[in-house]
Amino acid sequence: MDNPYVPRPYKVLSSARETADTFTMTVGMAVLHSPGQFVQVSVPGYGEAPISICSDSRKEIKLNIRQVGAVTNALAGLKKGETVLLRGPYGKGYPMKKLNGKDIVIVGGGCGVAPLKGLIDYVENHRKDFGQVSMFLGYRSPDDIIFKKELAGWKKKYSINVTVDKKGNTKSCIDAREGFVTDALGETDIRADKSAAMICGPPIMMKGSIGILKSKGFRDKQIFVSTERLMYCAMGVCCHCMIRGKFTCLDGPVFRYDEIMDIENG
Question: What is the pLDDT of residue 132?
Answer without folding.
Answer: 95
